[in-house]
Amino acid sequence: MTNLAIAASGLCKSYGDKTVLDGVDLAVPEGTVFSLLGPNGAGKTTVVGILSTLISADAGLARIAGHDLTTEAPAVRAAIGVTGQFSAVDGLITGEENMLLMADLHHLSRAEGRRVTAELLERFDLVEAARKPASTYSGGMRRRLDIAMTLVGAPRLIFLDEPTTGLDPRSRHTMWQIIRELVSGGTTVFLTTQYLDEADQLADRIAVLDGGRIAAEGSADELKRLVPGGHVRLRFTDPTAYRSAAVALPEVTRDDESLSLQIPSGGSQRELRSVLDRLDSAGIEADELTVHTPDLDDVFFALTGAGVPGQDNQPKETVR
Q1: CB within 8 A of 110, min separation 6: which ones?
Q2: Do residues 85 and 180 share a domain?
Q3: What's the pLDDT at 306?
Q4: Is the residue at 118 inside a domain?
Q5: Could you tell me where the beta strands, DSSP code E, fall in the chain?
Q6: Is the pLDDT of residue 190 over 80?
Q7: Which of 103, 210, 237, 244 keeps 20 to 30 A from 161, CA to CA?
C-alpha cells in the first residue's frame, strides 16, 4: 500500500451507556480525499475529534501522519489542521488579523507570518476583504478564511468536518475546487459531509459509518455496485407496442396502467444496446427510455436504513 496518512484500528468511544464508536478501522492513503458518511449522530464528529487529539478514545490504536496518536500527540497536532462545521473565525477583527493571529500561534516570525498571510489571502480570493471585519463576510467567505487559517501551519493532513454545511451552491462548488487544489498539492483531506454528491465528486474512498461501525468502504463506484436495483424503464403510448415489447424483452416487470416496462440492468452500454436491439428486431419503438443506476443516496439508504436529510430519497433516473 501507499504510505498512510491515517491508520486506525479498533477505535471505541462511549458516553455513559451509549456506545458511539464500536471498533472503527480506517486506512487513509496520503494525498487523497477520504470521506466519512453516516446519519446524524452516527459518530462522524467523534471520529474527527479522536483522530485530531481533541477527544481520547476508550480503546484502539492510531497513527496520524506517521505519529502515534497517544504517545506523540504534540507531533500529531503539528502535522494536522482541523476545520469544523462551526467557523473558528473571530468576527470582531479583520480577515488579515485572523490570519496573523494564527501565524503567531504557529510561532512564525513577523516577516514569515505576513508573507504566508498575504499568499493565502490571495489564494483564497480574500485580498479585497482582508482589512474588513470578518463579521461582514458572507458564509462562503468565512469558510474560505477558516480554511486559509488552517493552512497557515502547512499541515500535511486536514480534517474538514462538514465544511460546506449552510453554504449556497456557488460557495459549495468553490469549496470543492479548493479541496481539489489542496489534494493536487499533496495534502490529505479527511472529509465528513451530509451531502452525498459532495462525497461522490471529491472522495477517492468513502466509508459509511452506522451503529458505531464501518458498514462499508470503497470508491464511490464500488459502493454503488453493492446496491441492486438498476434498471431500464420503457414507456409507451401505443398499447399494441407495449404488449409486443413485453413479449420481446426478457425479465420485464409490467405496469399496465402506465404502459411501462422495467428491465433489470446494471446500466452498461452493452446491456442498453441489447434492449434496443431486441426492440429494433421486433420493429418496436418506445416513446421514452430512462436508465436508473444506484447512486450514493441508494447506498446510504440501504446501508443505514435512514433517509438522506433534505433529499426525497427517490430513485434517480436519466431521461434518454
Answers
A1: none
A2: yes
A3: 55
A4: no
A5: 4-15, 18-29, 33-37, 59-64, 67-68, 80-83, 157-161, 188-192, 205-210, 213-218, 231-235, 253-255, 260-264, 288-292, 318-319
A6: yes
A7: 103
Q: Could you tell me the CA-to-CA distances from 137 to 86, 132, 203, 307 in Å, in that order?
A: 15, 8, 28, 33
C-alpha cell at 159: 480534517
Is there a single domain that holds both residue 28 and residue 171?
yes
The one-character DSSP state at 193 is -
Cα–Cα nearest to 302, from 318, 283, 291, 315: 315
The amino acid at 249: L
**pLDDT exceeding 70 applies to what percent of the chain?**
93
Sign of CA dihedral 49, 53, 55, 58: positive
Please check whether residues 141 and 60 belong to one and the same domain.
yes
CATH number of 236's domain: 3.30.70
Give yes or no for residue 286 having a pLDDT over 60: yes
Same domain, 148 and 13: yes
The reported pLDDT for the residue numbered 311 is 43
Q: What percent of the chain has pLDDT over 90?
A: 68
User: Has residue 182 got a pLDDT over 50?
Assistant: yes
Contact between residue 129 and residue 137 where contact means Cβ atoms under 8 Å apart:
yes
User: In the structure grid, which three cell numbers stand for residue 262, read together?
Assistant: 422495467
Can you list the positions of beta strands (E) in 225-317?
231-235, 253-255, 260-264, 288-292
Q: Cite the beta strand spans of 165-294 per DSSP E.
A: 188-192, 205-210, 213-218, 231-235, 253-255, 260-264, 288-292
Let me know whether 78 and 180 are in one domain. Answer: yes
Q: How confident is the model at residue 2 (pLDDT cuts 50, 70, 90)?
A: low
User: What residue numbers bound the domain in which 206 lies?
Assistant: 4-89+137-224
Reply yes or no on whether the pLDDT at 314 is more than 90.
no
* Amino acid letter, residue 27: A
Name the domain count of the chain. Answer: 2
Question: Could you tell me if residue 192 is inside a domain?
Answer: yes
In DSSP terms, which residues pair with 82 in a beta bridge?
A: 159
Overall average pLDDT of the 274-284 stretch:
92
User: 11 forms bridges with which residues in the sheet?
Assistant: 24
How does residue 316 score in pLDDT terms, banded at 50, 70 and 90?
A: very low
